[in-house]
Amino acid sequence: MRSVYLSARGYDSHFQEDSVGQNGPGGIITKVGLDTFVDPRLSGGKMNSLTREKGEDLIKLVEWQGETYLFYKRPMISTCVLSCSTADEKGNVTTEKELTPTGLSMAISCKTNGGRVIVQVKRYTQAGTLNSRMVTIPHIFVDHVVLEKPEHRLFRQFPEWGLTELNPAWTGEIRVPLETLKPMPHGLEKVAARVALECITPGSVVNFGFGLPSSVMYIACTEENMMDLVTSALEIGIIGGVPGIEQQFALCTNADAVIPSDYMFDNIWGGGIDHAFLSFGEIDEYGNVNVSRFGNAIIGPGGFIDISHNAKNLCFLGTFTSGVVEADCAQGQLKIRKDGTVLKFKKRVQEITFNSRRALSYGERRIRVATERALFEVTEDGLILTKIAPGIDLEKDILEKMEFRPLISRDLKTLDHRIYRPEPIGIREKLLAERDEQKDSRP
User: Would you name the residues annotated as active-site residues?
Assistant: First the structure.
Protein backbone atom coordinates (compact mmCIF):
# COMPACT_ATOMS: atom_id res chain seq x y z
CA MET A 1 0.00 0.00 0.00
CA ARG A 2 1.24 3.53 -0.66
CA SER A 3 2.64 5.62 2.17
CA VAL A 4 2.68 8.93 0.27
CA TYR A 5 0.16 11.69 -0.27
CA LEU A 6 -2.41 10.42 -2.75
CA SER A 7 -2.91 13.11 -5.38
CA ALA A 8 -5.45 11.28 -7.54
CA ARG A 9 -7.75 8.34 -7.04
CA GLY A 10 -9.11 5.48 -9.06
CA TYR A 11 -12.70 4.73 -9.86
CA ASP A 12 -13.58 3.30 -6.44
CA SER A 13 -11.55 5.45 -4.02
CA HIS A 14 -12.24 8.88 -2.56
CA PHE A 15 -10.91 11.35 -0.05
CA GLN A 16 -12.51 11.01 3.35
CA GLU A 17 -14.42 14.29 3.14
CA ASP A 18 -14.74 14.99 6.85
CA SER A 19 -11.07 14.29 7.54
CA VAL A 20 -9.63 17.11 5.41
CA GLY A 21 -7.70 19.40 7.71
CA GLN A 22 -5.20 22.23 7.49
CA ASN A 23 -2.51 20.06 5.93
CA GLY A 24 -4.59 18.06 3.47
CA PRO A 25 -6.79 14.99 3.72
CA GLY A 26 -6.58 12.72 6.73
CA GLY A 27 -6.81 9.65 4.52
CA ILE A 28 -8.76 7.94 1.78
CA ILE A 29 -11.58 5.47 1.57
CA THR A 30 -11.37 2.69 -0.98
CA LYS A 31 -12.43 -0.88 -1.68
CA VAL A 32 -8.80 -1.90 -2.19
CA GLY A 33 -7.92 -4.41 0.51
CA LEU A 34 -11.42 -5.56 1.44
CA ASP A 35 -11.41 -9.19 2.68
CA THR A 36 -7.60 -9.32 2.78
CA PHE A 37 -5.42 -9.23 5.88
CA VAL A 38 -5.56 -5.41 5.99
CA ASP A 39 -9.34 -5.55 6.51
CA PRO A 40 -10.13 -4.91 10.22
CA ARG A 41 -12.50 -7.89 10.11
CA LEU A 42 -9.40 -10.05 9.61
CA SER A 43 -6.33 -8.43 11.20
CA GLY A 44 -6.43 -4.78 10.12
CA GLY A 45 -2.84 -5.07 8.93
CA LYS A 46 -1.58 -5.57 12.48
CA MET A 47 1.39 -7.86 12.18
CA ASN A 48 2.29 -8.86 15.77
CA SER A 49 0.91 -9.14 19.31
CA LEU A 50 2.10 -5.65 20.31
CA THR A 51 0.23 -3.90 17.49
CA ARG A 52 -2.81 -6.07 18.05
CA GLU A 53 -2.93 -5.25 21.77
CA LYS A 54 -1.79 -1.62 21.83
CA GLY A 55 -1.47 -0.48 18.23
CA GLU A 56 -3.52 2.29 16.68
CA ASP A 57 -6.31 1.35 14.27
CA LEU A 58 -4.85 2.74 11.04
CA ILE A 59 -7.48 1.05 8.86
CA LYS A 60 -11.19 1.24 9.60
CA LEU A 61 -14.31 -0.19 8.03
CA VAL A 62 -16.71 2.54 6.83
CA GLU A 63 -20.01 2.82 4.98
CA TRP A 64 -20.24 5.35 2.18
CA GLN A 65 -23.23 5.79 -0.12
CA GLY A 66 -24.59 2.42 0.94
CA GLU A 67 -21.40 0.45 0.24
CA THR A 68 -18.60 -0.91 2.42
CA TYR A 69 -15.14 0.64 2.15
CA LEU A 70 -11.87 0.75 4.03
CA PHE A 71 -10.55 4.03 5.45
CA TYR A 72 -6.75 4.31 5.41
CA LYS A 73 -5.40 6.99 7.72
CA ARG A 74 -2.84 9.25 6.11
CA PRO A 75 0.62 8.61 7.61
CA MET A 76 2.20 11.69 9.16
CA ILE A 77 5.64 11.63 7.53
CA SER A 78 8.21 13.60 9.56
CA THR A 79 11.41 12.83 7.62
CA CYS A 80 11.92 12.05 3.94
CA VAL A 81 15.28 10.86 2.52
CA LEU A 82 15.61 10.79 -1.28
CA SER A 83 18.30 9.77 -3.76
CA CYS A 84 18.58 12.23 -6.67
CA SER A 85 21.12 13.29 -9.30
CA THR A 86 21.95 17.01 -9.39
CA ALA A 87 21.24 19.88 -7.01
CA ASP A 88 21.90 23.58 -7.56
CA GLU A 89 22.86 26.10 -4.90
CA LYS A 90 19.22 26.88 -4.10
CA GLY A 91 18.31 23.23 -3.58
CA ASN A 92 16.49 22.55 -6.85
CA VAL A 93 16.95 18.88 -7.69
CA THR A 94 16.95 16.73 -10.84
CA THR A 95 16.74 12.95 -11.30
CA GLU A 96 18.23 12.40 -14.76
CA LYS A 97 20.60 9.65 -13.56
CA GLU A 98 18.07 7.83 -11.36
CA LEU A 99 16.17 4.68 -12.24
CA THR A 100 12.85 6.44 -11.57
CA PRO A 101 11.93 10.09 -10.81
CA THR A 102 10.04 9.19 -7.61
CA GLY A 103 10.29 11.75 -4.83
CA LEU A 104 8.17 14.85 -5.38
CA SER A 105 4.95 13.50 -3.84
CA MET A 106 6.85 12.17 -0.82
CA ALA A 107 8.65 15.48 -0.37
CA ILE A 108 5.37 17.44 -0.57
CA SER A 109 3.67 15.08 1.88
CA CYS A 110 6.55 15.47 4.32
CA LYS A 111 6.74 19.26 4.00
CA THR A 112 3.00 19.78 4.41
CA ASN A 113 3.28 17.80 7.63
CA GLY A 114 6.02 20.08 8.91
CA GLY A 115 8.77 17.51 8.33
CA ARG A 116 12.28 17.66 6.89
CA VAL A 117 13.32 16.56 3.40
CA ILE A 118 16.90 15.34 2.95
CA VAL A 119 18.19 14.80 -0.59
CA GLN A 120 21.35 12.91 -1.50
CA VAL A 121 22.83 13.88 -4.89
CA LYS A 122 25.72 12.89 -7.10
CA ARG A 123 26.81 16.43 -7.99
CA TYR A 124 26.28 20.15 -7.36
CA THR A 125 25.86 22.95 -9.89
CA GLN A 126 25.51 26.73 -9.85
CA ALA A 127 22.09 28.28 -9.26
CA GLY A 128 20.29 29.13 -12.48
CA THR A 129 22.09 26.55 -14.61
CA LEU A 130 19.47 23.80 -14.38
CA ASN A 131 16.78 23.64 -17.04
CA SER A 132 13.60 24.44 -15.15
CA ARG A 133 11.79 21.63 -17.00
CA MET A 134 14.33 19.13 -15.68
CA VAL A 135 13.80 20.06 -12.03
CA THR A 136 11.74 17.28 -10.46
CA ILE A 137 11.85 18.55 -6.86
CA PRO A 138 11.86 22.37 -6.46
CA HIS A 139 13.91 23.94 -3.67
CA ILE A 140 10.84 24.93 -1.64
CA PHE A 141 10.38 21.23 -0.81
CA VAL A 142 14.01 20.56 0.12
CA ASP A 143 15.65 21.22 3.51
CA HIS A 144 19.06 19.56 3.24
CA VAL A 145 21.27 18.42 0.36
CA VAL A 146 24.06 15.88 0.89
CA LEU A 147 26.73 15.01 -1.69
CA GLU A 148 27.20 11.25 -1.85
CA LYS A 149 30.59 9.62 -1.64
CA PRO A 150 31.60 7.01 -4.26
CA GLU A 151 31.59 4.21 -1.68
CA HIS A 152 27.97 5.00 -0.79
CA ARG A 153 26.60 4.51 -4.27
CA LEU A 154 23.79 2.00 -4.59
CA PHE A 155 25.61 -0.71 -6.53
CA ARG A 156 28.61 -0.66 -4.21
CA GLN A 157 26.30 -1.58 -1.33
CA PHE A 158 24.67 -4.56 -3.08
CA PRO A 159 27.46 -6.70 -4.56
CA GLU A 160 25.05 -9.65 -4.82
CA TRP A 161 23.40 -7.80 -7.74
CA GLY A 162 26.57 -8.52 -9.72
CA LEU A 163 26.81 -4.86 -10.78
CA THR A 164 29.44 -2.19 -10.25
CA GLU A 165 28.20 0.81 -12.26
CA LEU A 166 24.94 2.31 -13.45
CA ASN A 167 24.19 1.27 -17.04
CA PRO A 168 23.15 4.35 -19.11
CA ALA A 169 20.54 2.17 -20.87
CA TRP A 170 18.68 2.02 -17.53
CA THR A 171 18.50 5.81 -17.21
CA GLY A 172 17.45 6.48 -20.81
CA GLU A 173 20.76 7.98 -21.94
CA ILE A 174 21.27 5.29 -24.61
CA ARG A 175 19.37 2.37 -26.14
CA VAL A 176 21.04 -0.99 -26.70
CA PRO A 177 20.26 -3.78 -29.18
CA LEU A 178 18.13 -6.49 -27.59
CA GLU A 179 20.62 -9.06 -28.89
CA THR A 180 23.07 -7.84 -26.24
CA LEU A 181 20.78 -9.02 -23.43
CA LYS A 182 21.56 -12.53 -22.24
CA PRO A 183 18.74 -15.09 -22.51
CA MET A 184 17.36 -16.46 -19.26
CA PRO A 185 18.92 -19.85 -18.40
CA HIS A 186 16.66 -22.80 -19.20
CA GLY A 187 15.18 -24.40 -16.10
CA LEU A 188 12.02 -24.76 -14.03
CA GLU A 189 11.58 -21.02 -13.45
CA LYS A 190 11.92 -20.23 -17.14
CA VAL A 191 9.45 -23.01 -17.97
CA ALA A 192 6.93 -21.58 -15.46
CA ALA A 193 7.32 -18.12 -17.00
CA ARG A 194 6.68 -19.60 -20.46
CA VAL A 195 3.48 -21.24 -19.24
CA ALA A 196 2.32 -17.81 -18.03
CA LEU A 197 3.36 -16.21 -21.32
CA GLU A 198 0.47 -17.97 -23.04
CA CYS A 199 -1.95 -15.93 -20.89
CA ILE A 200 -0.98 -12.63 -22.56
CA THR A 201 -3.35 -10.97 -25.01
CA PRO A 202 -1.67 -8.99 -27.84
CA GLY A 203 -2.13 -5.23 -27.46
CA SER A 204 -2.31 -5.37 -23.66
CA VAL A 205 -0.82 -3.06 -21.03
CA VAL A 206 0.80 -5.52 -18.65
CA ASN A 207 2.13 -5.29 -15.10
CA PHE A 208 4.79 -7.72 -13.84
CA GLY A 209 5.61 -8.20 -10.19
CA PHE A 210 8.98 -8.72 -8.55
CA GLY A 211 10.69 -12.12 -8.85
CA LEU A 212 9.59 -14.80 -11.27
CA PRO A 213 6.81 -12.71 -12.95
CA SER A 214 9.39 -10.26 -14.31
CA SER A 215 10.86 -13.18 -16.29
CA VAL A 216 7.67 -13.31 -18.39
CA MET A 217 8.32 -9.92 -20.00
CA TYR A 218 12.07 -10.56 -20.19
CA ILE A 219 11.50 -13.73 -22.20
CA ALA A 220 8.83 -12.05 -24.34
CA CYS A 221 11.24 -9.25 -25.34
CA THR A 222 14.59 -11.04 -25.58
CA GLU A 223 13.52 -14.36 -27.11
CA GLU A 224 10.00 -14.15 -28.53
CA ASN A 225 10.05 -10.81 -30.41
CA MET A 226 6.95 -9.47 -28.64
CA MET A 227 7.93 -5.90 -27.69
CA ASP A 228 5.45 -4.53 -30.24
CA LEU A 229 2.60 -6.73 -28.96
CA VAL A 230 2.57 -5.84 -25.26
CA THR A 231 3.60 -2.82 -23.18
CA SER A 232 4.80 -3.25 -19.62
CA ALA A 233 3.74 -0.77 -16.94
CA LEU A 234 5.63 -1.44 -13.72
CA GLU A 235 4.56 -0.06 -10.36
CA ILE A 236 7.85 1.81 -9.96
CA GLY A 237 6.82 3.98 -12.92
CA ILE A 238 8.57 2.33 -15.87
CA ILE A 239 6.60 2.01 -19.12
CA GLY A 240 7.80 -0.23 -21.94
CA GLY A 241 11.29 -1.62 -22.39
CA VAL A 242 12.77 -4.81 -20.94
CA PRO A 243 12.58 -5.12 -17.13
CA GLY A 244 15.39 -6.85 -15.31
CA ILE A 245 14.81 -10.16 -13.55
CA GLU A 246 15.11 -11.09 -9.86
CA GLN A 247 17.23 -8.48 -7.96
CA GLN A 248 17.58 -6.41 -11.15
CA PHE A 249 13.80 -5.90 -11.41
CA ALA A 250 14.00 -2.07 -11.39
CA LEU A 251 16.82 -1.98 -13.94
CA CYS A 252 14.76 -1.59 -17.11
CA THR A 253 16.54 -1.43 -20.47
CA ASN A 254 15.23 0.77 -23.32
CA ALA A 255 12.14 2.06 -21.49
CA ASP A 256 9.64 4.12 -23.47
CA ALA A 257 8.94 6.44 -20.55
CA VAL A 258 9.46 6.69 -16.79
CA ILE A 259 6.92 8.44 -14.58
CA PRO A 260 6.70 8.87 -10.80
CA SER A 261 5.53 5.70 -9.06
CA ASP A 262 2.51 7.39 -7.47
CA TYR A 263 1.25 8.41 -10.93
CA MET A 264 1.53 4.79 -12.01
CA PHE A 265 -0.55 3.77 -9.01
CA ASP A 266 -3.16 6.30 -10.08
CA ASN A 267 -3.22 4.45 -13.41
CA ILE A 268 -3.47 1.09 -11.63
CA TRP A 269 -6.27 2.30 -9.35
CA GLY A 270 -8.11 3.63 -12.38
CA GLY A 271 -8.12 0.20 -14.07
CA GLY A 272 -5.33 0.94 -16.56
CA ILE A 273 -3.74 -2.52 -16.37
CA ASP A 274 -5.07 -5.21 -18.72
CA HIS A 275 -3.03 -8.10 -17.34
CA ALA A 276 -1.02 -8.46 -14.15
CA PHE A 277 1.49 -11.24 -13.50
CA LEU A 278 2.17 -11.63 -9.79
CA SER A 279 3.96 -14.15 -7.57
CA PHE A 280 2.28 -16.51 -5.15
CA GLY A 281 3.76 -18.05 -2.01
CA GLU A 282 0.68 -20.00 -0.96
CA ILE A 283 -2.64 -20.54 -2.71
CA ASP A 284 -5.74 -22.32 -1.41
CA GLU A 285 -8.62 -24.25 -2.96
CA TYR A 286 -10.60 -21.06 -3.59
CA GLY A 287 -7.70 -19.24 -5.24
CA ASN A 288 -6.86 -17.00 -2.28
CA VAL A 289 -3.19 -16.02 -2.35
CA ASN A 290 -0.61 -15.33 0.36
CA VAL A 291 2.59 -13.44 -0.48
CA SER A 292 2.93 -11.39 2.70
CA ARG A 293 3.58 -13.71 5.66
CA PHE A 294 5.20 -17.13 6.14
CA GLY A 295 5.51 -18.37 9.70
CA ASN A 296 7.08 -15.50 11.64
CA ALA A 297 8.60 -13.99 8.52
CA ILE A 298 6.75 -10.81 7.57
CA ILE A 299 7.37 -10.05 3.89
CA GLY A 300 4.66 -7.45 3.37
CA PRO A 301 2.56 -6.95 0.22
CA GLY A 302 4.24 -3.98 -1.48
CA GLY A 303 1.89 -2.94 -4.28
CA PHE A 304 0.44 -6.45 -4.60
CA ILE A 305 -2.97 -5.62 -3.08
CA ASP A 306 -3.45 -2.49 -5.20
CA ILE A 307 -2.50 -4.29 -8.42
CA SER A 308 -4.40 -7.53 -7.83
CA HIS A 309 -7.55 -5.59 -6.87
CA ASN A 310 -7.60 -3.41 -9.98
CA ALA A 311 -6.07 -5.36 -12.88
CA LYS A 312 -8.60 -6.57 -15.43
CA ASN A 313 -6.98 -10.03 -15.65
CA LEU A 314 -4.56 -11.82 -13.33
CA CYS A 315 -2.02 -14.62 -13.53
CA PHE A 316 -0.33 -15.77 -10.33
CA LEU A 317 3.00 -17.34 -11.10
CA GLY A 318 5.38 -19.62 -9.19
CA THR A 319 6.99 -23.02 -9.01
CA PHE A 320 4.64 -25.79 -7.91
CA THR A 321 6.61 -26.64 -4.74
CA SER A 322 9.41 -24.97 -2.78
CA GLY A 323 12.73 -26.44 -1.80
CA VAL A 324 15.26 -28.40 -3.83
CA VAL A 325 13.63 -29.68 -7.01
CA GLU A 326 15.50 -31.84 -9.50
CA ALA A 327 13.86 -32.19 -12.90
CA ASP A 328 14.49 -32.68 -16.60
CA CYS A 329 12.74 -30.07 -18.76
CA ALA A 330 14.72 -29.82 -21.99
CA GLN A 331 13.40 -32.65 -24.19
CA GLY A 332 9.87 -31.48 -24.82
CA GLN A 333 8.46 -32.82 -21.57
CA LEU A 334 8.86 -32.49 -17.79
CA LYS A 335 10.17 -35.28 -15.56
CA ILE A 336 10.39 -34.66 -11.80
CA ARG A 337 13.23 -36.68 -10.26
CA LYS A 338 13.13 -35.09 -6.81
CA ASP A 339 10.34 -32.78 -5.65
CA GLY A 340 10.37 -29.87 -3.22
CA THR A 341 9.44 -30.59 0.38
CA VAL A 342 7.39 -27.41 0.94
CA LEU A 343 3.86 -27.52 -0.44
CA LYS A 344 2.48 -24.24 -1.78
CA PHE A 345 -1.07 -25.37 -2.59
CA LYS A 346 -2.62 -25.23 0.89
CA LYS A 347 -6.04 -26.09 2.28
CA ARG A 348 -5.93 -22.62 3.88
CA VAL A 349 -3.36 -19.88 3.33
CA GLN A 350 -1.72 -18.39 6.41
CA GLU A 351 -2.64 -14.85 5.41
CA ILE A 352 -4.95 -13.58 2.67
CA THR A 353 -3.15 -11.03 0.50
CA PHE A 354 -5.54 -11.61 -2.40
CA ASN A 355 -9.16 -12.66 -1.97
CA SER A 356 -10.39 -14.46 -5.07
CA ARG A 357 -14.10 -14.28 -4.34
CA ARG A 358 -13.92 -10.55 -3.70
CA ALA A 359 -12.03 -10.10 -6.97
CA LEU A 360 -14.50 -12.18 -8.95
CA SER A 361 -17.43 -10.25 -7.47
CA TYR A 362 -16.33 -7.07 -9.25
CA GLY A 363 -17.32 -8.42 -12.63
CA GLU A 364 -15.87 -10.27 -15.56
CA ARG A 365 -12.18 -10.96 -15.17
CA ARG A 366 -9.96 -13.97 -15.76
CA ILE A 367 -7.70 -15.26 -12.99
CA ARG A 368 -5.17 -18.02 -13.62
CA VAL A 369 -2.35 -19.75 -11.74
CA ALA A 370 0.69 -20.82 -13.75
CA THR A 371 3.42 -23.23 -12.65
CA GLU A 372 6.04 -25.29 -14.46
CA ARG A 373 3.80 -28.38 -14.41
CA ALA A 374 0.21 -27.13 -14.37
CA LEU A 375 -2.10 -24.28 -15.33
CA PHE A 376 -5.19 -23.55 -13.22
CA GLU A 377 -8.23 -21.32 -13.63
CA VAL A 378 -9.75 -19.54 -10.60
CA THR A 379 -13.56 -19.59 -10.66
CA GLU A 380 -16.41 -19.05 -8.22
CA ASP A 381 -16.42 -22.83 -7.70
CA GLY A 382 -12.73 -22.89 -6.80
CA LEU A 383 -9.46 -23.83 -8.49
CA ILE A 384 -9.81 -25.79 -11.76
CA LEU A 385 -6.88 -27.68 -13.31
CA THR A 386 -6.99 -26.97 -17.07
CA LYS A 387 -3.55 -27.98 -18.46
CA ILE A 388 -0.63 -30.16 -17.36
CA ALA A 389 2.91 -30.54 -18.66
CA PRO A 390 3.77 -33.37 -21.04
CA GLY A 391 5.51 -36.17 -19.13
CA ILE A 392 3.89 -35.29 -15.79
CA ASP A 393 2.06 -37.89 -13.71
CA LEU A 394 -1.23 -36.22 -12.71
CA GLU A 395 -1.65 -38.13 -9.46
CA LYS A 396 1.96 -38.33 -8.24
CA ASP A 397 3.37 -34.99 -9.45
CA ILE A 398 0.31 -32.77 -8.98
CA LEU A 399 -2.54 -34.08 -6.85
CA GLU A 400 -0.32 -35.70 -4.19
CA LYS A 401 1.56 -32.39 -3.85
CA MET A 402 -1.58 -30.43 -2.93
CA GLU A 403 -3.37 -30.25 0.43
CA PHE A 404 -6.71 -30.21 -1.39
CA ARG A 405 -8.05 -31.81 -4.53
CA PRO A 406 -8.81 -29.21 -7.20
CA LEU A 407 -11.57 -29.44 -9.72
CA ILE A 408 -10.28 -31.03 -12.94
CA SER A 409 -11.45 -29.80 -16.31
CA ARG A 410 -13.31 -32.36 -18.41
CA ASP A 411 -11.26 -31.01 -21.29
CA LEU A 412 -7.87 -31.32 -19.54
CA LYS A 413 -5.19 -30.37 -22.06
CA THR A 414 -1.43 -30.83 -22.34
CA LEU A 415 0.81 -27.76 -22.34
CA ASP A 416 2.79 -27.04 -25.52
CA HIS A 417 5.83 -29.33 -25.68
CA ARG A 418 7.93 -26.43 -27.03
CA ILE A 419 7.79 -24.83 -23.58
CA TYR A 420 10.08 -27.63 -22.41
CA ARG A 421 12.85 -27.10 -24.94
CA PRO A 422 15.73 -24.57 -24.69
CA GLU A 423 15.05 -22.81 -28.00
CA PRO A 424 12.39 -20.05 -28.40
CA ILE A 425 8.85 -21.41 -28.59
CA GLY A 426 7.38 -19.09 -31.23
CA ILE A 427 4.61 -17.83 -28.96
CA ARG A 428 4.21 -14.64 -31.01
CA GLU A 429 2.70 -16.44 -33.99
CA LYS A 430 0.45 -18.53 -31.75
CA LEU A 431 -0.98 -15.52 -29.91
CA LEU A 432 -1.57 -13.58 -33.12
CA ALA A 433 -3.35 -16.58 -34.66
CA GLU A 434 -5.57 -16.91 -31.56
CA ARG A 435 -6.39 -13.19 -31.73
CA ASP A 436 -7.35 -13.47 -35.40
CA GLU A 437 -9.56 -16.50 -34.66
CA GLN A 438 -11.39 -14.53 -31.99
CA LYS A 439 -11.96 -11.64 -34.41
CA ASP A 440 -13.31 -13.98 -37.09
CA SER A 441 -15.68 -15.65 -34.63
CA ARG A 442 -17.33 -12.39 -33.60
CA PRO A 443 -20.80 -11.80 -35.06
Answer: 235
